[in-house]
Amino acid sequence: MKLSRRILLPVLAGLLLAGLAPLPTTHAATCYNFKEAERDFARKTNAARDAAGVRKLHLDPELSKVARKHAHEMADRNLLHHTPSDVLKRRVTRWKILGENVGQGFSVSSLHTAFMNSTVHRQNILYPSYRHIGVGVVNKNGWMWVTVVFEGYDNPGTRLNMPSC
Question: I want to staple 121 with a disulfide (CB 3.0 to 4.6 A). Which of 58, 115, 133, 153 is the partner?
């Protein structure tokens, strides 16, 4: 299966990325611990989608685990970068189309505003075929690192270990 070109869109090198999400209903949702900032990103994303007349996304624990892992990798390396497509394809299972936004900034609001002011990131946020969102946030050395993974399948999964209930 070919990875959508949306995941391969380049990040603008000079850009420093400074409605409520429905609760997930999968089994893992009862065990996964979402951070408040992760829920805030999902809420702001769904508010933007609602304002644009696009259906809301479901906050998915498995996609969030994938997103949080990448946010940790960026923070640990102190390097803003997208997940390599081959790595993302290994980490996410049962997908049709994937998208990813990554950012480094100071707050959920400033990063969400930066995403919405960037054409490529805004397109990911408002893309109507997406159904699920995974958000990973890591705070390190005064920075907030975020990875947002978008997916269009009914029930995406991951090969990463999820918490057991």
Answer: 115
- Selection from 56, 51, 61, 2 nearest residue 26 by Cα: 61
* Helix, strand, coil share of the chain (percent; to 5): 40, 20, 40
The angle subtended at Cα 49 by Cα 48 and Cα 53, nearest 5°, is 120
HEC readout, 66-108: HHHHHHHHHHHHCCCCCCCHHHHHHHEECCCCEEEEEEEECCH
Q: Are 123 and 150 in contact (CB under 8 A)?
A: no
Residue type, 8: L
- State how far the alpha carbon of 49 is from the alpha carbons of 34, 38, 124, in Å: 21, 17, 10
Longest CA span, the chain:
43
The pLDDT value given to residue 2: 39
The pLDDT tens digits of the residues spanning 40-71 come to 999 999 999 999 999 999 999 989 999 999 99
Instruction: Read off the amino acid at residue 98.
Output: L
